[in-house]
Every structure is written in C-alpha cells, then in structure tokens.
C-alpha cells in the first residue's frame, strides 16, 4: 500500500496536542476530541466497509507490530503525525480512547504510589535502567561480524549499578515509556526486551537528540519489535537474491580479472540489499528522483546490481573500452551513471554522481544536485528528491568536508530535506592497522551528532537487521526532514585494492577474515534452518545470476528499459557547441529602463538604512541619466534582464546579499522589524526563481554544492561569490577535481560562475590576490573562462553572455574591490543596452596611432593607475590595452586592436601581482605570438612590469605596497 491517511485541518490537529507523557490532555474537551477523530477517520481512504478490519489491525499493531502482516506494518510505520505530537495521525476513535484510558491509568497509578517506600525507589531505578539501555546499549551491541571490536564493560547496564539484583527479576514494575505493549511487566521481561532491542545486531544512538518527539518516535520503532521485525518468506528470499547478486558480481570479476583494481564489495555485500530497500521504499513515499554519492568500494557493484548498468558494458571497460571519445576519461570506479527503476510508487530516476579520489568531496556535490532538482520540482519539503551519500569509515571521520556538509543540512540556502548517510565500515582505513590511528572518537560516525542525527550501527552479517534499520532510517528522514546515518559494520575481504596484500599490516584481522563465511552463505544457512529455502534453491539463485552475467543481461531487477524521459534533466540544447566568444547580449532600451525601475522599487512599509537608501536613490539617478552607471547598478540590472528573459538565478556567498564591499544590497533589511525585501524577486509576474543567500562560513562544501547545482540546472545563472578572492583556497579541491576537469574526465558540462574579488589595495597577503595564476595553470582544451572585467558594462554583458550563449563552461571572474566605486570605472545606459562583452578593450585615450611607440597590455585595476600616470606625465607615445579575458586567450581580438599602431617598438605586460604569480607565466606566450604577427621579432621584446617574485601574494605593510605599486607603474612606461 502506498496511500496515506487523510489529514485533518491544522486547527483540528492543534486540538490533538499531547501532554508531556504523550497521552491526550486530560484538560481537553473529550467530546471535541472524539468529534475530531471521527472527522479525520471519514477523510481516510480506509473508511467505509474496511474500517473495522483496519482498526482491529492497528490495535493489534499497537500491542505487537510483529503480529500484523509486513505490508500493514510498513504502512502503519509510515503514517504521518501532527506536528508537535508523538502519536500517529490515524483517525481511529477507539484507539485514541485506548490511549486516553492508558494515560488515566498511568496518572492514577503514579499519583497513588507513595514516593518514599522501597518499591517506589526500585521503580525509579528500573526507569533509570531503561534509560541507560537507550543511552548506552549500543556499546554492548553485537555489531561487529568479526568480533574484533573491543567492548569495555558498560556499568550502566548492570542491575547492581541501579541497586537492583536477580532477586528483583520476577517482580513486576511499571514499564514507563518503554514500548512493551503493557503497563507492567516482570523485571526479567523488561531486561530481556531491552537486551534484544539495544544490544543485538543494531546499536542505536539517538538519545543525543534534543527533540522529544523524535526520540519517542525512534523508541517506538525499535522497542515495539525488539529491533527484529518478522519479515515474510518472500521478503527474506528477495534479500538473499540481492546478496547473491552482490557476491556473484565480485566473484565473477575476481575470476576474470584477478589483481585488477575494482575496489570490490567483498565483506560488505549487504550494502546492495540496503540500497535496494532504500530506493524501493522511497518510491513508495512518492519520491521521483534519488541522487547518490558513492565511495569507491562497491561502486561497480552498485552500478550493475542497482542502477542497471549492463554487465557487458562493464566488461568492455575492463577490457579497455573508452567511456567518452573526447577528453581524458576516468577510471571505472569514478564514473557516474543514471537510470530509471520501477518502485511501488511508480518510476524513480536514479543518478549516481561522478566522484574523484578525493573521497568525501562528492557529498556536498550531491546535495547541490538534489537541491536543484527539488527547486525545479518546487519540492519545498524534499519528499520528491532523496539524497543518499555513501562513505568510507576513515574518510567520514577524517575529512572536514563531512562536517561542513552536515552543517549545511538545515540552513535555508542548502537544506535538502534530510540525507540518508551510509558508512561502509570496513573497520580499517586504507592500510592503517588500528582505529586509534584513524580517529579520536569512539565511532567514525560521532561527527554526525553535531546535527543530532540518529545513528544506527548494524552488523553487516545480519540482513534482517539491516533491512529494519534501513526502513527506520528512511522513515525518519521522511517524517522529520533531517539527516540520518546507517553505519554498516562489515569488513574488507581483500586489501585496499585487489593488488594489495592486507595481512602485512592487519595480520590478526585477516586471519579471522580468511575463515569467515560470506554474508550470503550465512544468510542462506539461516533461511535453510528456518525452512524458507533449500540448498538447491540457493544454488539455483547463484547459477541463474552467473548465467545472466555471462550472457550480458541486465541484473538490476527493477530496471525500466524504456524510461520516462520527463524525469531527466535535458542538456540537449547545450551539447556540441564550439567555443565562441560572443553572444547577442543587447537589451531593448525601453524594456531595460522598465526593469531598472522595478529593481529600484522598495515598498513604503520597508524602512531602509540610511546608506542603503542612498544606494537606491543613486541608482534611480543612474536610470534617469543623472549619474554614470556604477558596478552595483550594472550587475543587478544584468540579473533583472536575465530573470525577465526566463533564466533562474542563484547567488550565494558569505556576504552576497549586500556584497562584501556593500555594493550590491540586493537584499534590503527593514529597519523596523528586521524583515527582508528582495526587489529582484518582483521583476515581473511569473518570473523564474531568484535565490540569494548569505552562506555559512565555508568554502569547500559551499562551492561543491553550487557546482552540483550548476550541473543540474543548465538554463540558470549559478554564482558563488568569495568574500575575498583568495578564500577560494579553502575549496581548491573543488576547482581541481570538478570545475576545471569535470568535462574532460566525465563529459560533465557546468556553467558555474565564480566571483572572486581581486586587486591590490594594500590589505596584505590574504586580501589581495584571487590566485589568478592557479586558474590559468588549470586552463586547457577550452575547459573554462577566466575574465577580469574593469567596467560596469563589461560585467553586465559578461554575466548575460554566460547564460544566453548555449555554451556551458565554468566562468572565473576576477571581480573588483576599489573599482566598485572608482570615479573612472563607470559606464552609460547605452553601453549596457547596445554593447557586448569585449574580450579586449582598446585604448580609451585620444592618441594619434602614428605616434604610439609603446603598448602596455594589462588586466584589472592596474589599468586605472596606468592611465593616471600617463595623464600626469603627458605620455602620448604609450597606448594602454586591457585584456579582459585571459582564457581562452583572445589572440585575434588583440591582433586587431594592435594593428592600429603601425610604429610599435615595444610591448610591455604590466600586472600588480609578483613576477611568479598573476598572468605572466601562463599568458606571455600568447602575447608574444600576437606581437610577432605584427612585427617579426617584436614578441621577443615583450617586457614585464610588476612586483618582484615573492613567496607571499602581497606585502603586509601599506608603505611597502605603495612603493611597489609606484615602481611597477613607472616600469611599465620606462622599462
């Protein structure tokens, strides 16, 4: 069943708020409550002739969930609750009456019991014991299939710790909030229930969660079935079939390609039925897309057995077939994939993200892709798109981007409605020999407690327990829209890779592994003992899978052969375009003025701060022609025109709402009440989404998130803005592994824009350079664009070009700081309406080309220092040409510009950066080539003017900075 019970109105739901002990309030009007319940029952799809049957089933479920069939237990488990209530939103009057009566009994019992006798004191100790199991039972749980886990005694779980003894085992005590199906039970039964719930194959950690409803919900799900629900024979047969598939693929590849790296799943095969259940169950919730970030280990198995990659295609790749014809390609265990599978709730699209060897960096990329898909579907609560991130144990504990990804999980800019995290816990990191060398915490999952995520440690050799933990994890995510972690405790049968010999560093572990049966073998034996399958049936599963593999048949059971393409992101309009530098970015003047008027409008009820009010007043003057257009006006107007033309825009960064240098103020803060108003959200009726958020203090996770977003929404302008350009250092891995190389490795297009404030203002080594040289070093094969715009018109057309062209390449902008308000760095409305982005800006002075003997080439802010020097010193023999796009280098445009100067004797490149930094080393060969095209040998005379080579990007003392700046400008004219 996939339908969900009808919901009462919010007003009616408010009448059902429970008292602290989760029983209906005694103070409430019981007749009103009964009427509400009846109304809710009438809105349910289960009303009518089936009502009594369903009601009886649910009453049975409340007493013992294992007593009802699988499909009904699954349905009842997933019923929604009213917000703020720990009970279910199931309109069953008699059941509510039962809850009420139970609460009355408990109140009466508690009120009547004297508080000072020994019986009462022991009752309190029993309740403390119950709580101790919830807190610390996981430390005693049997979660390690190899039994290598050192378990220190847990005194809190001992009867004597609570001043109880074996003599009390037959005494009946109140069960309190323990889900035991009755008010009182012998201590022996209480302890047995706690041991089975918290100390067997699942170790639950959830008592660190502050929200009482969440804790009660989790207690009910585990305690009601003792963490061991009874699954039907069909369900268990399916588990064994998926385990057989997981083991079968690894065995086949091991025999066919011995010693070849594949990062196999041996020892963790139960991961495959876990993923199968996650996808199928999420489909039952109505999920339409699942995006997966995957570790190396088990990736090939997931591709074949879950996503439905053809085994024959995988074999061809092992034999050397190229996955992409152009570009470098990548190894098999980094490749992404997409497919559609059928679930109880309909067709679901699966997308496996491409992943480099930097392990955890894919996690925020997945979150970005998921958020983009949710925004496209207007899926505000995240029910339609599910993120699943799969980790290795050592990487999860060791890499900081995991913390950053958790930190973003509930923020406005980056939330995705909760992520299911799975750790394939091999209990060893790479070749490290002891957990003490991989982390300082008890578990690799302890980092997840920072966001109060529940954590389920599960024995990888117990498929039934894994199935239960998986169901609870997904249901929790759907119920509370928060992250949840499954720690699949398993082992690695082979070394770090198939060519590695692990016993050299883990001799004791691998002595155990050598004699340890596989998860499939253990489960097959269990099913045989339970009479579910015979040995012949088990062998038939193995033989059938092997036959399918050898025949090249698809082995993912639910694969849709003719998928619904409406679930895909359509990149067709953006494929196959050759590089072109220009696009028609003009805007009708009248329409542009109308849009500018709208973006300057602030409602009467919004009281703006004084400086912000002046910024908007100045913009109105610019629109009227009373002031020259500055950077903030032109940039914001670019966004307005793109929104008007149907392009969504997303802009994030640590100060993006106002701009680090207070030039943007796209978000206006009401001085009366702190509310905000965003004029760009009100450009026209029915406009696309405009999203602008100040990010949390992260670069790596945030930039990776925006990359993932940009690879999923091709028609949008996606911008990440660094607070200072050199702060991108904290996200260097994203630039190296994704932005610069994603297309050549995986054929993955991306139109992400990075705004990196850059310019030498005397602010020291960490606030001057956006490390232009690093980006230029990464440039090849037209993989991205690196631009240094110096006028408002240039940024206007550059931003518009990025979206209007069908070409999708990352854009790196060395954006300005002081130029945001420089009196010379201005434009006019005509340049915005009728211009275009010029990759090379000719000299703007009134020079006679015949008298020019020297040409200074430059980029960025230094241009204005050079023009000031030329004016002050009346140097009419020198032209100053700006190269606004450094990659792809505009050779033709530069040649056409320099042709005007027939008498050039010397060409100088001038930059603010030190000799070993900036554009000099990466771009000088382009400049020499153009100079030689003008005059043979002129390129060899190309001179450099800039700061001396330096280990630091800039001087830390203003006096040194000023002298260096004076000297480099002087050198440009007099070298």
TrEMBL record:
Cellular component GO terms held in the UniProt record: cytosol; oxoglutarate dehydrogenase complex
Signal sequence bounds: none
Protein EC: 1.2.4.2
Catalytic activity: N(6)-[(R)-lipoyl]-L-lysyl-[protein] + 2-oxoglutarate + H(+) = N(6)-[(R)-S(8)-succinyldihydrolipoyl]-L-lysyl-[protein] + CO2
An MF annotation (GO) of this entry: oxoglutarate dehydrogenase (succinyl-transferring) activity
Comp. bias (Polar residues): 16-26
InterPro entries (UniProt xref): 2-oxogl_dehyd_N (IPR032106), 2oxoglutarate_DH_E1 (IPR011603), DH_E1 (IPR001017), KGD_C_sf (IPR042179), ODO-1/KGD_C (IPR031717), THDP-binding (IPR029061), Transketolase-like_Pyr-bd (IPR005475)
GO biological process, one term: tricarboxylic acid cycle
Disordered: region residues: 1-29
UniProt keyword annotation of Isomerase present: no
Database matches in Gene3D superfamilies: 3.40.50.12470, 3.40.50.970, Multifunctional 2-oxoglutarate metabolism enzyme, C-terminal domain, TPP helical domain
Organism superkingdom: Bacteria
Ranges where the Transketolase-like pyrimidine-binding domain occurs: 629-822
Enzyme class: oxidoreductase
SUPFAM superfamilies noted in UniProt: Thiamin diphosphate-binding fold (THDP-binding) (SSF52518)
Swiss-Prot/TrEMBL cofactor(s): thiamine diphosphate
Keywords: Glycolysis, Oxidoreductase, Thiamine pyrophosphate
Quaternary structure, from the entry: Homodimer. Part of the 2-oxoglutarate dehydrogenase (OGDH) complex composed of E1 (2-oxoglutarate dehydrogenase), E2 (dihydrolipoamide succinyltransferase) and E3 (dihydrolipoamide dehydrogenase); the complex contains multiple copies of the three enzymatic components (E1, E2 and E3).
Role: E1 component of the 2-oxoglutarate dehydrogenase (OGDH) complex which catalyzes the decarboxylation of 2-oxoglutarate, the first step in the conversion of 2-oxoglutarate to succinyl-CoA and CO(2).
Protein family (similarity comment): Belongs to the alpha-ketoglutarate dehydrogenase family.
Protein name: 2-oxoglutarate dehydrogenase E1 component
Taxonomic source organism: Aidingimonas halophila
């Amino acid at each position: 069943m996939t339908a969900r019970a009808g919901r009462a109105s919010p007003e009616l739901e408010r009448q059902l708020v429970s008292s602290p002990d989760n029983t209906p309030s005694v103070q409430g009007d019981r007749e009103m409550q009964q009427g509400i319940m009846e109304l809710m029952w009438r809105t349910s799809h289960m009303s009518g002739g089936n009502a009594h049957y369903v009601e009886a089933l649910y009453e049975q479920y409340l007493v013992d969930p294992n007593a009802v069939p699988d499909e009904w237990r699954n349905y009842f488990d997933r019923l929604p609750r009213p917000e703020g209530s720990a009970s279910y939103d199931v309109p069953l009057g008699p059941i509510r009456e039962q809850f009420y009566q139970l609460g009355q009994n408990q109140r009466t019992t508690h009120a009547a019991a004297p508080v000072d006798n020994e019986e009462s004191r022991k009752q309190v100790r029993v309740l403390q014991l119950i709580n101790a199991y919830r807190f610390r039972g996981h430390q005693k749980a049997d979660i390690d299939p190899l039994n290598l886990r050192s378990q220190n005694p847990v005194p809190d779980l001992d009867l004597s710790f609570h001043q109880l003894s074996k003599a009390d085992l037959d005494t009946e005590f109140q069960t309190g909030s323990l889900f035991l199906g009755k008010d009182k039970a012998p201590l022996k039964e209480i302890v047995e229930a706690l041991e089975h719930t918290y100390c067997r194959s699942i170790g639950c950690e959830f008592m660190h969660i502050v929200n009482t409803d969440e804790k009660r919900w989790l207690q009910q799900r585990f305690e009601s079935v003792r963490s061991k629900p009874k699954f039907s024979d069909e369900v268990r047969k399916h588990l064994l079939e998926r385990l057989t598939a997981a083991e079968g693929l690894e065995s086949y590849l091991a025999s066919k390609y011995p010693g070849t790296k594949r990062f196999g799943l041996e020892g963790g095969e139960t991961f495959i039925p876990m993923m199968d259940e996650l996808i199928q169950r999420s489909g039952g919730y109505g999920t339409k897309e699942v995006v997966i970030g995957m570790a190396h280990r088990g990736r090939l198995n997931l591709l074949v057995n879950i996503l439905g990659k053809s085994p024959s295609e995988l074999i061809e790749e092992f034999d050397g077939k190229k996955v992409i014809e152009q570009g470098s390609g990548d190894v098999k265990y980094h490749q992404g994939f997409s497919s559609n599978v059928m679930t109880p709730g309909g067709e679901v699209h699966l997308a496996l993200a491409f992943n480099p060897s930097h392990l955890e960096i894919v996690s925020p990329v997945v979150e970005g892709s998921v958020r983009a898909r949710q925004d496209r579907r207007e899926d505000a609560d995240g029910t339609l798109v599910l993120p699943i991130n799969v980790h290795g144990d050592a990487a999860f504990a060791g890499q900081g981007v995991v913390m950053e990804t958790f930190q973003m999980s509930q923020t406005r800019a980056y939330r995705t409605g909760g992520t299911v995290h799975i750790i394939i816990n091999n209990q060893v990191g790479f070749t490290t020999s002891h957990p003490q060398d991989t982390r300082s915490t008890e578990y690799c999952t302890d980092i997840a407690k920072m966001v109060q995520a529940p954590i389920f440690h599960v024995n990888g050799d117990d498929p039934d327990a894994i199935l239960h933990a998986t169901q609870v994890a997904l249901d929790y995510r759907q119920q509370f829209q928060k992250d949840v972690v499954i720690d699949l405790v398993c082992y690695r049968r082979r070394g770090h890779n198939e060519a590695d010999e692990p016993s050299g560093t883990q001799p004791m572990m691998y002595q155990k592994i050598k004699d340890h049966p596989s998860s499939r073998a253990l489960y097959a034996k269990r099913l045989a003992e339970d009479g579910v399958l015979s040995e012949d049936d088990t062998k038939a599963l193995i033989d059938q899978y092997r036959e399918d593999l050898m025949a090249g048949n698809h082995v993912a059971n639910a694969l849709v052969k003719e998928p619904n393409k409406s679930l895909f992101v359509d990149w067709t309009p953006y494929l196959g375009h050759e590089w072109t530098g220009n696009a028609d970015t003009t805007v009708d003047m009248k329409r542009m003025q109308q849009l500018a008027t709208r973006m300057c409008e602030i409602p009467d009820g919004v009281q703006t701060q004084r400086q912000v009010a002046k910024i908007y007043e100045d913009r109105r003057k610019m629109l009227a022609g009373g002031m020259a257009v500055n950077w903030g006006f032109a940039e914001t107007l670019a966004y307005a025109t793109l929104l008007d033309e149907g392009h969504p825009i997303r802009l994030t960064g640590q100060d993006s709402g106002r701009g680090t240098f207070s030039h943007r103020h796209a978000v206006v803060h009401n001085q009366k009440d702190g509310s905000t108003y965003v004029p760009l959200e009100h450009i026209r009726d029915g406009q696309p989404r405009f999203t602008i958020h100040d990010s949390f203090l992260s670069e790596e996770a945030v930039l990776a998130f925006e990359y993932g977003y940009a690879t999923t929404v091709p028609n949008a302008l996606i911008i990440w803005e660094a607070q200072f350009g050199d702060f991108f250092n904290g996200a260097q891995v994203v630039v190296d592994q994704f932005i610069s190389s994603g297309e050549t490795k995986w054929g993955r297009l991306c139109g992400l824009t990075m705004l990196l404030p850059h310019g030498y203002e005397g602010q020291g080594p960490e606030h001057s350079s956006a490390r232009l040289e690093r980006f230029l070093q990464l440039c090849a094969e037209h993989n991205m664009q690196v631009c240094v715009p110096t006028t408002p018109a240039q940024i206007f057309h550059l931003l518009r070009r990025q979206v209007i062209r069908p070409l999708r390449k990352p854009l790196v902008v060395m954006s300005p700081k002081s130029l945001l308000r420089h009196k010379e760095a201005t434009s006019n409305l005509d340049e915005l309406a009728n211009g275009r982005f010029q990759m090379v800006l000719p000299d703007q002075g009134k020079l006679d080309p015949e008298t020019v003997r020297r040409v200074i080439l430059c980029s960025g802010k230094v241009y204005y220092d050079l023009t000031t020097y030329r004016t002050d010193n009346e140097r009419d023999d020198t032209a100053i040409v700006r190269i606004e796009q450094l990659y792809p280098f505009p050779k033709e445009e530069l040649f056409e510009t320099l042709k005007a100067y027939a008498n050039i004797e010397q060409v100088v490149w001038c930059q603010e950066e030190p000799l070993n930094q900036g554009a000099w080393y990466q771009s000088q060969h382009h400049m020499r080539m153009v100079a030689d095209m003008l005059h043979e040998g002129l390129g060899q005379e190309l001179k450099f003017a800039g700061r001396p080579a330096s280990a630091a990007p800039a001087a830390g003392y203003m006096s040194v900075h000023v002298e260096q700046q004076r000297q480099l400008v002087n050198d440009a004219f007099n070298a």
